Every structure is written in structure tokens, then in C-alpha cells.
Amino acid sequence: MEVYSELAPLGAARGTAVALGFFDGVHIGHQAVIRAAARHAGAHGLAPAVFTFSLPLKNAMKGGRICPESEKHRQMEALGAAFYMEPPFEQFRALSPERFVRDVLAGLCRAKAVFCGDNFTFGARAAGNVDTLKELCAPLGIEVQIVPMALYEGVPVSSSRIRAALEAGDMPAVNAMLGRPYRIDFEVRHGQGLGRTLGFPTINQVYPEGFVMPRFGIYITRVGIGGEWYAGATGLGTRPTVNQTGGGPTCETFIPGFEGQLYDESPAVEFYQYIAPSRRFADLAGLTACVQDAAARALAYFEGPEGAKEGKKPL
């Protein structure tokens, strides 16, 4: 997949079928739009493309980020995108709907067909909607296809619903709406090393500012390391038992059966089930017992019916 981080002509001589949207999370509704564009491209000799945009992490216009950029790119490529244009929003936010269609879609993207959800808006001050898109594309010979919104439990899937489910710790709902396990791959940082002293060394990852965080607590997770997968017990929060100096929340994962150091690497951590809230223990023995119990539950999860249903064994 060719990634363009600025507005630029796509190298698609025969034209493109373009999926349009912000696509935060690349949830099942987004996937339907991108797959529709890819199928149309394959049937009509076009290149499948995605047009989206980037925002600074501190910009809350679209809400807290759901997945890292690396995961977003990985999903786009897996869905069949050959070209991925993601310019900063500031580069085109002032364009009228007319200029966006003429200069960006017809000009830079060489679009022959575009695909979006029925709530798509575009142009300065979001002045254009799907009806505007059809009106402006028709004279240019650009086909417009509106993809129905995906449903979960009878309600349209949206990034805001996924954020709310993350904040509630409802991982089955999050994963159902994403169409895959919720996943992070932030760089492993040095921590206090207390877990190693207590017999359960952890990897320490920190959510960048601007990301939505799951509910604080303990999770059953799965960790990808060097092509292998391991069950994990992940604690997300402020470490109330051992944190005497304040500081922001951390994401610490104990990986039973794994030996080695992962500092400065970016292992994938997938979240499957919330099992307990964060709490302060009277002593370190209580903390150790809690972590070991969570690890045992994680191993049992992947070895039992739930793991079989996921089709993803830890080892």
C-alpha cells in the first residue's frame, strides 16, 4: 500500500475507486465502505484507494483516538487499499465542496467512483453531504455509492459507541463493533521493575495523550511477540498499591511463560475481557496474588471454550 501524508497526485493511471471518511478505529462500518471500494476497483480495472485525513493527537474534533496509526494502516492494507492518502486536515479544510470534488477527488485521486457512509460530510464547515456529493460528482463522471451503516445489537456502529464501550470496559462489544480484538502496540518503556522483584515481570506501555483509554482495571489480553502469541494479564490504571509519587496511568502486562526483555519494542496487545477494577491492596502479597490469579484466568480463557471461539490460542 502506498501511503501519501500530503495532498499529491496518486500514481493510478487508470483511475481509482475511493473510500471516503476519517475511519478512526476502522470498525465494521468503515470496513464495509473500504471493501465496497476495493470490490468495485477489482471489477472495473481501477485502483482501490482511501482518502482520509490526519489530526494532531490533542485535537478532539473527532474524539479520542481508538487505534494507533500503525494499526489503522495495517487494517487498510488488509482490506485491499492500494493507495492511502492522509493529508493534514489543515491542508484542505478551507476547500468548498465544489473544489474538494474537482481538485481532490477528480484531480489528485483520479476518482472514477467514490464510496462513503450515509452520514458523510465534506467541504469547508462540513457544507457538503451525500446528496451534494452526488450532484457534484455526476458532471465529472464519478459514480457515488452510499454504503449502509453497519449495525450492532440493532443500532448503527459508530466510533463514539466504541469509545463509550471502551470507557465502560465492555470488550465484547468493542471487539464486535471493531470486527477484531481491540489492539495497541505502544513502545515498551522502562518502569520501576517492581514486578520482576515480585516474580511477575511486566511490560510497561503508556497511552499517548489524545487516545481514548479503556476503563481502569484488569484485563485478559493476548500479546504478540516475534510471530508468537502469549496469554497476558494487563493492568490499566494508576497502580494505587505502589504508586507513591503520582503520575499518569500506565498499561502493564504480565506474560506468563515468556522470558526476555522487550524494551523499545512495540509488541501488539489485544484486549479480550475485563475481569476486575483497579484497587489498592493492603500489601504486596495481595497484589502478587491478584496478578497471578489474573494470569491463570487468561491462560484458562484461551485454552477453554472462549479461546476456541476466538480461534486464537496463546501459544
What topology does this entry show?
Elements: E1 2-4, E2 16-20, H1 28-44, E3 47-51, H2 69-78, E4 83-85, H3 97-108, E5 111-117, H4 130-137, E6 143-147, E7 151-152, E8 155-156, H5 159-168, H6 171-178, E9 182-184, E10 188-189, H7 194-198, E11 202-205, E12 217-225, E13 228-237, E14 250-254, E15 268-276, H8 284-303, H9 305-310
Parallel strand pairs: 1-4, 2-3, 2-5, 3-4, 5-6
Antiparallel strand pairs: 7-8, 9-15, 10-11, 11-14, 12-13, 12-15, 13-14
Describe the protein.
The chain is an alpha/beta fold. The protein folds into 2 domains: 2-152, Rossmann fold (3-Layer(aba) Sandwich); 181-310, Riboflavin kinase-like (Elongation Factor Tu (Ef-tu), domain 3). It has 9 helices and 15 strands. It has helices spanning 28-44, 69-78, 97-108, 130-137, 159-168, 171-178, 194-198, 284-303, 305-310; strands spanning 2-4, 16-20, 47-51, 83-85, 111-117, 143-147, 151-152, 155-156, 182-184, 188-189, 202-205, 217-225, 228-237, 250-254, 268-276. β2, α1 and β3 form a beta-alpha-beta unit.
